Amino acid sequence: MLTKDDAIEALKGVQDPELGLDIWTLGLVYTIDIKEEEKVFVMMTLTSPACPFGPMILAEARQSLITKGFKDAEIDITFDPPWQPNEDVRILLGLTF
Q1: In angstroms, what CA-CA distances link 42 with 68, 73, 91, 93?
Q2: What is the pLDDT of residues 72-83, one digit of tens each?
Q3: Residues 62-80, mean pLDDT to the nearest whole number
Q4: pTM listed for this prediction
Q5: Which residue ranges make up each domain of the chain?
Q6: How big is the CA angle at 43 (ends 50 and 21), to the nearest 5 degrees?
Q7: How much is the average pLDDT of 79-88?
Q8: pLDDT tens digits, residue range 19-30?
């Protein structure tokens, strides 16, 4: 049986091409809900509503979950709350002084 940790591992393989970090580390994933029969629901955001790589990131996230073994991967996008990088991510991105 697949777990939330399996989903996290899969999502750690999906990078934001602009920032060079994976979507899990960036804090773009808000919710992971494992449903019956290896179905997973993910609620996530993007770095901005105008993210030019949004469709690509979503497709890669879905494919990564399916490759991990989930039979169905539903991903919804929300911008509430808007993404704010945490302190660790700001350090990784060189945004703190």
Answers
A1: 14, 8, 26, 25
A2: 999 999 999 999
A3: 96
A4: 0.90
A5: 4-88
A6: 60
A7: 91
A8: 999 999 999 999
Six-digit token string for 2: 């697949």
Residue with tokens 């911008």: 79
Give the chain's mean pLDDT: 93
Cβ contacts of 24 within 8 Å, gap of 6 or more: 8, 11, 12, 14
| CATH numeric code, 4-88 | 3.30.300.130
b/e burial code for range 55-94 (CB count within 10 A of at least 16 → b): eebbebbbebbeebebeebebeeeeeeebebeeebeebee
Question: For residues 8 and 65, what is the distance between their CA atoms, to the nearest angstrom?
Answer: 9
Cβ neighbors of 60 (< 8 A, separation 6 or more) are 14
CA distance 85 to 26: 7
Are 69 and 92 within 8 A, CB to CB?
A: no
Burial of 42 (0-12, 13-18, 19+ CB in 10 A): buried
